[in-house]
Write a structure and sequence with these properties.
It contains 12 helices and 10 strands. With about 325 residues, it is α/β, with parallel strands linked by helices.
Amino acid sequence: MAFISRIKAATSIAATTLVMGMGAAQADNFKIAVGDGAGGTQEALGKAFITALEENTGGNHTGSLFLNGQLGAEQATVNDMAMGTLDFSILAINNITPFSPSVGTLTLPYVILSLEDAVKVTQGPIGEELIENTIRDAGVRIIGWAYSGFRVLTNSVRPVESVADLDGLVIRVPKNEIMIATYKSWGVNPTPMAWSETFTGLQQKVVDGQDNPYITVYAMKFDEVQKYITNLRYLFSIEPLVVSEELFQGLSADDQAAVLAAGKTATEFSAEFLKAEEETIKAELVSRGMEISDPADDEAEFIQLATDAVWPQFYDSIGGVEKLNEVLTALGRDPVQ
């Protein structure tokens, strides 16, 4: 817990360089793009990574976080890293999927059903395969994972407890085919919108709602423009920490090992951060006037429609139904026949 305490004690939004015997001016200060604002899982992962990297390299390497998409939209940062013009990025996994479709296995609705599922998949052989595929397909390397919890639906119009309650609502989704198809399976024609435009879109009533984990709802202050939350747990949000493969290959073997070890430390911290913070954040959102409800029938209607309609659409893009079955089997669930 001492490591977590050091991270929580950090007060600056952008991490600063650790000054050691060699002097801060001689340290490499990597730029780390972050899509979310302060207080969220992405920032917490980034701070943990920087602290561990400084410790692992004796202060020879550090990093600075650029929050709220200051360095570009999340998908744009993937291109920038592939070209070697950006060092690191922390982003939602659905924004890597267009570049490396096999990663989409983890964004299919109702595949990941718990934090334990997310850890098992990302930290095991399946996670290693996804890392290799992403290096091959996108020119970037996943070195850590933030676990942000289930995406919940928020809106400013009414409580949503059934598929029928979605009728007429305009819902923002990322520009991600799987997430778009999921809402369509529920009878909604969602509105793809860049993350950087989402708060304004909600504020100006261009869209009625959006979905993201509780921690992101809190970090982005969506309570200022949204009233209702539905525990629609169709997607567990996993947000990778990614490094430019060009940068990574340019590091010494020792520095590569230090970066990978720092990513592992940050990943372990993220799971503990989620467990420690989510319930407190939910209570805080309620105190700010948000109303939380659960879907009727334990989401059975949502689950049936989404898995029947969406899973088969994307078997080819994720590398075949066998890729999904590998994940389901690893999680102790029955494979798709």
